[in-house]
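Q: Convert this sequence to structure tokens.
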Amino acid sequence: MTTTKPRAAKAKRSTKASKVKGLEIDVQSAGITKIDTPALVVNLFRGVKKPAGATGAVDKALGGLITQLIEDGEIKGSAGETTLIHTLGKIKPSRVLVAGLGPQDKFDAQVVRRVSAEVVRFLRRKGISSAATTAHGAGIGGLDPQLSGQAIAEGAHLGLYKFGVYLTKSGESTNEFEKLTVMELDKDRAKSIEVGVKLGCTIARASITARNMVNEPANHMTPSRMAEAAQKVATNQGLKIEIMDNAQMKKMGMGAFMGVAQGTDEPAKLIVLRYDGDPSNPENNLGLIGKGITFDTGGISLKPPGGMEAMKGDMAGGASVIAAMEIIGQTKPKINVLAVIAATENMPGASAQRPGDVVRAMNGKTIEVINTDAEGRLVLADALCYARKQGITRLVDVATLTGAMVTTLGKACTGVMGNDDTLVQQTIDAGKKTGEKFWELPMFDEYKDLIKSDVADMKNSGGRQAGSISAALLLAEFVDGAAWVHLDIAGTSTSDKVSGYLVKGASGVPVRTLAQLASDLADAGPPKKSKSKAKAK
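A:
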């Protein structure tokens, strides 16, 4: 076991400029038509005939050109619409980009994230490396200036994300978008926007940490490399960390976890990160539990070969938990957070567990292994037990757990299940703030019959019927009375297309929601006893 003590915090950078992956965002309090920039971004709601605010000022300086284009039907203000206008020296900016915001009654921070992402990608395709932008929604849109700044930063950084570590670079230079300046004439609002930009950069940086981990091939992102990534986060953010090996986990009685790990030559790791934000109130806590299967062959119950390469991402839950701790370490909410990541491969080696084996978890309960490809719930069972042994009373586990979840909800939202109405709703509400969508599934007692076993306390697979729910019901056997929420991100952990701030590949879901939940729980204070439910609505 290795233990790292918190290091002294590094000096804080100025809010005037925050960098992530080469992109710099700053805030200036000046007139938008006076800034010397290759491109100025303004916006328009759908249905507006005569622009006002900053867009109106630019329109006036251009002799009503934007109004004319609206009348001609070339600019409609539809969501995702981009219209590039060359100013021909009429104002300082060389170009004006009019970005559509869609209907005003549907406008929120999520629209800002999407628009910000689409705008910077559009400019990058045009070979433009820097631009200035109005603070979308901070004026007529009625959006809080700090939230606008945060959403702009998140959208820009995440929208520009590319994973090209293993691409051989050609001799030709590739243009990158490098600098975005947010313009706001009102100095008080400009200060609020600066605060939001700094927070948005922090959040985006962590989301990119998760994206990078999930996009790495499995021969590079091994359990040991996951532990190294967690160690880096701990060192940079002053978190405590423990990394346990196979021998330690066997000694602790983690038979469910070790059953999965026994089929691979790669050593498994139990990664434990601790943030003590309210040390005088140990009951004010939150546990984040992540599945870290760095490659999932299915074990003896081997998966079909088609598409198996995507199983390098079966550790997305663990990656999102590590990344959420990166945000928590910087934003410092007043709550104690324990992160537990169970990392191993699931391989069909000579020592691999077999269908029909029975394993015993850390809490003494036995599980009949019906399908070795239902391994995520086994490693999570022991991780949940460990968190409860540490005194955690509110648990959120995150896992790419079931293909059934993709069939049920597709890639639009994450499935939520749990035993506590309050914590379930708090998680869903946190997602509404971050723009990450969640949908609760029922956990009626009748579903428990699916995992009944004749030879053990339960079996690890209930078959195809209600597969996501029966998997969650197994996990519920290991929370020992704690308030608990399970997030199945099998569909949402990756995106198969470019859309808004999502790009093809790893999405980083639900990093931002986990950090927001910790912040919300901290603001709410120590937990009050809430009614746990035997079955969901």
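The chain has 14 helices and 21 strands.
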